[in-house]
Amino acid sequence: MIIPAKSSGNALSRTCPAIAIHQVSHFFGSNPVLNHVNLTVPKGTILALLGPSGCGKSTLLKMLAGLLNPASGEIRFDGEIVASGSFSLPPEKRNLGMAFQDYALWPHMSVRQNVAFPLQMRGIKGQAQAEKVMAALERVGLADFVSRRPSELSGGQQQRVALARAIVAEPRILLFDEPLSNLDRDLRESLCEEMAVLLRQLGTTAVYVTHDQHEARALAHRIARMDKGAIARIDTIDPSAVSPFVA
Hints:
Helix content is 29%, strand content 27%. It is an alpha/beta fold. The protein has 2 domains: 17-95 and 172-236, P-loop containing nucleotide triphosphate hydrolases (Rossmann fold, 3-Layer(aba) Sandwich), CATH 3.40.50; 104-170, no CATH class. The strands form 2 sheets. A 6-stranded mixed beta sheet has the order 6-7-8-3-9-10, with helices on both faces. Strands 2-1-4-5 form a 4-stranded antiparallel beta sheet, with helices on one face. Strand 1 (19-28) and strand 2 (31-41) form a beta hairpin. Helix 2 crosses helix 3, helix 2 (111-121) packs parallel to helix 4 and helix 3 (126-139) packs across helix 4. GO terms for molecular function: ABC-type ferric iron transporter activity; ATP binding; ATP hydrolysis activity. Keywords: ATP-binding, Cell membrane, Ion transport, Iron, Iron transport, Membrane, Nucleotide-binding, Transport. Residues 19-246 form the ABC transporter domain. Pfam families: ABC_tran (PF00005).
């Protein structure tokens, strides 16, 4: 069971959106993948990028992560340009947390070491690191698994480790690339609902890529539906009216 995080009590500034994407285009060879995408994500919002394979949602997420650079247009975080046609801020300087469908855990490291890695990259060591790691693992219900290796965990437990690693450094933005797609349906539904609770408790801006509309509705405040490299429409979800995974 995921344990909700304690509120930090810090009021977020509302002077500019957490993410602003303006006229972003991209090509693979001569094939357009993103076509003048415009999108804003207010601070604290969970946005789902929803669409079929090949619609451009994962490409857009990789641009937010700094793994791809747009051919044109610009991306801003909190008003700061992080990517344009001629500039890209390195991923490690964007203050992001990321979780992927393949978990991306280091098999030779323990759960504790995997979760601690983002803190090491930021120079956080010793007792401060240990406390943050345990707090993150407690939030995802894995405090008793700190010494295990990924191979000793189930798929759901591995994804919880990946989630703990994504949140441990308290990033300004969380990015998810279909993180539940490798799980069976029952486990996917259960973990999705728990993630929704955790993300709302954290209050962190998040972008969640999925092709599953029920998963999107269970998690997100807003759903940006993508088609042929463009935003086709944006729906606002009322969490109180959502019945997760009901068609």
